[in-house]
Amino acid sequence: MATLILSAAGTAVGGPIGGAVGALLGRAIDSSVIGAPPREGPRLSELAVTTSSYGQPIPRVFGTMRLPGSIIWATDLRESSETSGGKGQPKTTTYSYATSFAVALSSRPVAAIGRVWADGALLRGGAGDLKVGGSMRLHAGHGDAPLDPLIAADKGAQACAFRGLAYAVFEDLELATFGNRIPALSFEIVAGDGTLDLVDMLGDTQLSAGSTIPLAGLTGYADAGGTRAEMIGQMARIYPVTATSRGAELVLAPRAPAAPALLPPAIAGREADASRPGPVVRRRNDTTAGFGGLRYYDAARDYQPSLQRSPQVGTGGGEVIEFAGVLSATAALARIAETRRRMLTALETLSYRVAMPEPDVLPGRCMLRPGDPRLWLVRSCEAHSDGTDLLLERVVAQAAITPSADHGSAIPPNDILPGKLALHFFELPWDGSGAGHVPQRYVAVSQPGRRGTVALSGVDADMLVPLGLAAQSDAVIGESATALPGSPALVFEPQASVEIALPVANGTLQSVDASALSDGANRLLLGEEILQFRVAEPLGGDHWRLTGLLRGRGGTEHHAMAGHPVGTRAVLLDRRLVPVDVDTFAEVGADSAIANGETVFAMLASGGATLRPLAPVHPRYRTDTAGDPSWTWTRRARGAWRWLDSVEVPLVEEREAYRVGLGPVDAPVSQWDVAQPHFTLPAAQWAALLAAHPDARLWVRQVGSHAISMATRLPH
Asked: pLDDT of 654-677, one tens digit each?
């Protein structure tokens, strides 16, 4: 009966939509009185996985939800290989795969993406960091969204901007962790915060401007399709709704005892049947009425389905509601307690007849009966020639009690928050591989806890120029924890040691034998000196003691002689460094693409080290048979600083040339250019120079094709 009445009333004031809403509310009223079979709403899934099926609906997301999404574009797998293995060891080629794809998330705009899960593990952490290589960007779903450049490059003129659809694009996502396949993804989608309102979810439904239904405690909901009436029906199961008319408008409001009006005087009987009784209060003795439990998504359990039961019902009684929304355990228990309380109080009904219908006596209005302190809610009204019959149910104000609930235990995947991003940009002496005239510049990037890549850019005045390079953020970068004194860097120093603090887990550094050390293993850039260490001893925490040092490698002995204070930058020179092919930038920046992360910059250190010849060594002084002073030295070549046995030192430069000077290196008092590794002066000239400049020192530098070496002091 209520279904017919409210359907007709809704159609009269709100058109077809109003009729659907009225019929829906009427069915809810009828079912509470005469009962109805259980309804099947949107069922909770155990976090369904990403799909790519045609015809799959894209939900409208409100608040914060965890959803799988639908793949709408993808490329083929991209294969890459890496060969490892040093001298005397077998070479191993490792193949890895990556792919790019886009995932549709919501058919209405969203604000952000939080965490992303892949096969149950975290792919993107709460700080916005990817745990594997690749990058992710979000298209929020606005109507003026531009084409994604990656999709445009792949599809050309057929590329679609997917305007009005929120989607995420993964570029070159590494798949080794997932068995070289696209994993099953689910996304924490943020489409607003604060209290949700059912009226906002109804979209373009024509309702009164004053209609509002706050959904207390609901922090996320996904509308997967269906009519607006069906959505109202699902919400009304735990958020009771009333529909009233205001002129020609339909008003939706929460069903609550507020601003009661006074019922007009009751009349008894009919003209043809005066024996019909007056107002009648009835109560059904159905203690099992109401809902016994609520299944929902719990954000405290990574949006896993949870269940709360009413303490008065126990584990076996009452219907369990399937509600596909996000609630806290406390909010869910409050909802189920309020719903059960409302259903139990609604067992008491009042049949009431009035002579004429009153403007305030409409379904959904709260009324007071003269001489009765109880509140009554009008459920239906039926007008006929003898008056208007009202059916009311008792309502009770909600008690101001916050229930105590436990969301249960869960084992969420670890989200290791990335630490501080460290960046070092430097040039190394030529090691003999590749072209000797190209500067060997490298970038070392380290960010503890991050497994993704970091985009690199060159700094040109006030602009950042993308280098097209992505650095893995796992280079070993630290600093010295103890001072390292100066060294002549002539022989292996087995007792020399230095402590290094590295913000990485133990096991990063390894000890090697003498053979591996001579082959160039364990190279460390400390400041601008390259040294090698034989023994790496963990001291606990992030500290290591390096013992057995070869100092001043690669022609950096002048830095070894100066020593290093505490806090000197230390970088392990291994395959995790990123080579920078361009030599036009003296500064680079690194962007980790983490939310609220800032770009980190680093200036070039040891600029020109690749092209600078190595300083001559083994200087000697003697007097020839004529009594003239003579000096000799030994030439070193770039790329040949390992001093391999039985191998002639290559020239490397276009010609052999040296510059000998007396006095300051930058402003010598006398200077000579020679083409051989020896130099002779007449005794008289040498004596005159010493007399004129008694404190001046004699030195020699090798002149290369691109630069000149550091000075080596000649004895006299």
From this structure: 899 999 999 999 999 999 999 999
